[in-house]
Design a protein that fits this description.
Elements: H1 3-11, H2 14-27, H3 32-43, H4 47-55, H5 60-65, E1 80-81, E2 84-85, H6 92-108, H7 113-116
Antiparallel strand pairs: 1-2
Length: 119
């Protein structure tokens, strides 16, 4: 990934991508609640603070910078997303965005929530 793409992702509004996560999940019979559970598990937001981030149209850079706490089990999120191995992505912010993409992908593929949340 080049720096221009990274910079674009940094400034992208989380609120703009959030409905796409829900749409992807719902197409496969999953729910908005499951998407929210995944996002909160990853970031430490609760439903109220997550909604505030969406309402404020926070960009990805600030969304992750303001996240209460990245889940300590993120190192267990491995595999390929968008042609990149998540665990090998050097840019810390892009890695976090790809973690989220990977988890939503697993949800859409029908994985059990227990497995997605690395329990």
């Amino acid at each position: 990934m080049n720096n221009a793409n990274n910079a674009r992702v940094y400034k992208m509004a989380f609120a703009g991508v959030y409905p796409l996560y829900i749409q992807k999940a719902e197409k496969k019979g999953r729910t908005k609640e499951e998407v929210d559970t995944i996002i909160c598990w990853l970031t430490g937001y609760d439903s109220k603070t997550l909604q505030a981030q969406i309402d404020n149209k926070t960009n990805f850079e600030d969304f992750f910078a303001q996240a209460p706490q990245l889940n300590p089990n993120v190192s267990k999120i491995t595999g390929v997303i968008c042609g990149y191995r998540v665990e090998e992505i050097e840019d810390p912010l892009i890695r976090k965005v790809r973690y989220l993409d990977k988890l939503i992908d697993e949800l859409a593929k029908g994985k059990a929530m227990e497995k997605i949340l690395r329990k």
